[in-house]
Amino acid sequence: xxxxxxxxxxxxxxxxxxxxxxxxxxxxxxxxxxxxxxxxxxxxxxxxxxxxxxxxxxxxxxxxxxxxxxxxxxxxxxxxxxxxxxxxxxxxxxxxxxxxxxxxxxxxxxxxxxxxxxxxx
Length: 121
Prior knowledge:
Elements: E1 3-7, E2 10-12, E3 18-25, E4 30-39, E5 46-52, E6 57-59, E7 67-72, E8 77-82, E9 91-100, E10 108-111, E11 115-119
Parallel strand pairs: 2-11
Antiparallel strand pairs: 1-3, 3-8, 4-5, 4-9, 5-6, 7-8, 9-10, 9-11
């Protein structure tokens, strides 16, 4: 079974930085994509950033130039470095994984429980 564990959320002042991490554990045969989504109060969940198995990165426009997604394949971990944080970045951030568990398994989607990021004075 696959488990995603997020960490690194918290309270920061505007202009500050945070790095959230997500570590995937379990019998993962192949990872297709790892990404971060967020859901702010009263809003729909949105894609923040994702990184494909080949390394291609995608960001939503509102975080371009401020956020950086990266991964450590040896640790099955994906990171989201968040710089110059703004109050509108306040949300629950969710880790997302698309992976196969073996060479015959159909790729499936997995989610972490989320970590709260609050940007406020």
